[in-house]
Amino acid sequence: MRINDDLTLPVIVHAAQLPWASSPAAGVDRRMLFRIGDEVARATSIVRYAPRSAFPRHTHGGGEEIVVLDGVFQDEHGDYPAGSYFRNPPGTSHVPASKDGCTIFVRLWQFRADDRAQIVRRPGEGRTLEPRSGAARAIELFDDESENVRFESWLPGSPVTVENVRGLEMLVLAGNLSVGDQTLISQSWIRLPAGQALRAVSGAEGAKIWLKDAPLLHPDVGRLP
Fold this sequence. Notes:
Layout: E1 2-3, E2 11-14, E3 21-22, E4 28-37, E5 41-49, E6 53-54, E7 58-59, E8 64-75, E9 78-81, E10 85-88, E11 93-94, E12 97-98, E13 102-108, E14 119-121, E15 127-129, E16 135-143, E17 148-154, E18 159-162, E19 168-179, E20 182-184, E21 188-192, E22 198-213
Antiparallel strand pairs: 1-4, 2-21, 3-4, 4-5, 5-13, 6-12, 7-11, 8-9, 8-10, 8-13, 10-14, 15-16, 16-17, 17-22, 18-22, 19-20, 19-21, 19-22
């Protein structure tokens, strides 16, 4: 399966308008944003857990990066309410579940092969940064020589420019914004190849976003089996 696999092209996906597709686990559905592969795949998805649903124990051969969008995501290590962010590097394993239901944003098999940084940020945790023009707040979730990941809150009705040297990926968490003639609401996802700056205008209520500044696919990304 291949979805939005040409990384040289800009992509905007209004995920809230996509149908839910079943996963192998009962009660766990997904909206696919990017995919190369079948059930084991490089993938970026919105995943919905019904109440009392769980996914069988599995090992992250290529790493897993998650933002909890609503509800409480859980595994044997703890509870992660909406606004949590974590990185499970290659080689880690868990049993993901949700007692009351939740929705998460997930990136799979997109870690560098040697990336072993396991990060958990619960709501409000992270390093406070000086916000860019048009933003009210910026929280750095992860940074190394290869990528920078953050939450940003944008002021209502403000133009915002994000320069793009390595590649950009953004998910709207709350509020809305416009890019060109398109309005992006919660769960809208945009991916821009290096050299194409993000130029947006936040809506009347502002916007909260998740933003990754990194190569769209690391040169040393782990190999799919």
